[in-house]
Amino acid sequence: MRRSLIYLLVSVMVVALVSAPAAAGGKVKIGLLAPLTGFAAADGLSVRNSVQLAVERINKKGGVLGKKVQLVVYDDRADAKEAVALARKLIQQDRVAAVVGGSYSTPSRAVAPIFQDEEIPFVAAYAVHPDITRAGNYCFRNGFLGMVEGKSAGYVAVKLLGAKRIALLTSDNDFGRTLAAGFKKYVSEKAPGTKIVFAKTYPFKEKDFKPYLSKIKELKPDLLFASGYYFQTGPIVNQAREMGLKVTILGEEGADSPKFLEIAGKAAEGFVLVTNLNRDDPRPEVKQFLKEYESRFKIQPDMVGASAYDAFMLICNAIEKAGSVAGPKIRKALAATRDYNGLTGTLKGFTDEGEVIKEVQVQIVKDGRFRHFGVVTDLELITP
Amino acid sequence: MHLFIEQLLNGIAMGSIYALVTLGLALVYGILRILHVAHAAIYTVGAYVGLAVFKFTGSLWLGFGGAMVFCSVLGVAIERLVYYPLLKYPPYVPLIGSIAVMLGIEELCRLVAGPYILTFPARLPFAAVHLGSVTISSTLMAVYAITALVLAVLWYITSRTEMGLAMRATSQDMAIADAMGINSHQVVSATFVLGSSIAAVAGVLVGIYYNQVYPTMGAVPAYKTLALIVVGGMGSVPGAVIASLLLGVAETLLIGYAQIPLPRDALAFIAMIAVLMWRSEGLLGSK
Questions:
Q1: Looking at domain A147-275+362-382, does it have CATH number 3.40.50.2300?
Q2: Full-model pTM
Q3: Is ipTM beyond 0.90?
């Protein structure tokens, strides 16, 4: 008798736990994975700050579905093993309605299938690897696919900067290699008059780029495409200028960080990059975000933060439209998003694979800040 | 040809940095026969302290000095509190202790200074030199000059002073040295002061050279220097310097000329394996 009573009690508790919805206690829980420590810590901080602003803004307006939004943030250290454990925690312990993927490709592609299996919508803010959205229809991407951004960078190099002889220096990981592949694809298919005279990858932890740069200097290219993160491209730009290498240097979103400007210092002037945040965007919501972020956190905002802000807002928008916190309904509303006005541009919509379609921004460093340089609007290039 | 010269200059700078970090390790191994892995953490602390003092006072020289003093104290503290009590155990016991100290200090740096890459905004007091199409940047010159200075001072101390004589005697046989009236424990501490202040110089220099200071900057040196002291001959200071310079040049030329996608860090260990197979005493070691 006593034993069956205990069984009964336990099963009641289990049922209560399992069925506790994401909106329990009058709150909607949304998860966020970001690299708050480890090598990518500066990006993680920017993501957390930006999403924090988004949460405050949403809650000031009364939250979603009349409930306050509660953010659950975990530090995945940009590490896949770490991220997998935290994804399970978000699902089983926190019971979040949806998750913002505010981290790099390697951890994001590891957790995407987990959220897919549990039918929890997952929006990768800025990770570029194709496997993330390939995990299934619950996985979306608000940033650019690596190939799209790489091809756009190729377009910028050839069409906007008129490069004829190009050197490629690539970080040896998913991110760097995918971007370089897109870049090469564009150049070989669309620019017969342009030659790639140097292409090398460097190990992820490389600090001394002088051996590569000396070689590049001798080949006299008119453009160097450096694809990697701010802690790689920053030293590359710095060391190149120190060595008297005057070539135009083009980068991508991995260098879109105030830390890049700090590490490269004066050498950053004239550096061009493709990204998704236009600092000179005339739309008032973007202006307000850029101003508020800088005055509050005393550091310049960047693309990872703005992308995570957008990913979070897209989820809230979808929950509101779906009128529910049930995964399948949020997913459907997310997939139906059209012409969404985000910080990182107007999102035309998602493809069937969950890939975003929006314009690629080109920025240039002037007086220690990223400024508008151009934009890639060619639909053929920006549609994944 | 000028490409080769430029690569050679890059390689010597890299090798000089390796040498500065490895020196302390070789000194400590020579005298205590323990692998002082935590040396790489002292180097990290040196970079942070140097940066903090530089930011506070605006003087790079005070930054170097402050880092040297702080790291000397830290080095001696590790020696007195961790290694000395563990000396009576087999050598792997102090090694494990050393690894623990290394990880602990690394985490402490992260907690105190944050996980972010800090930049070292120091201006060096000389400009780049252009010789034809070869450019020698100011940071390269700083690396050469400081390494040469450190090596000269170290050579003077170890071969021209009484302390140096005592150090050599202690490293040959601590018990006999004690019997000859040398206070060997003081000599050991002096070795840590010397090694740790060189690590501090290396930390600050690397911070400026790459314009980056971060908690895990000691991670790669922690294992690479182990390979270097094996190649140089365990405990041989000139051997460690030669091995470091050779490795720096070899790595740089490998990246500059070879088409094989061999990561730079692999080379040190290939060299170590080769040395262990064919000349187990190392380049300048004795059997």
A1: yes
A2: 0.85
A3: no
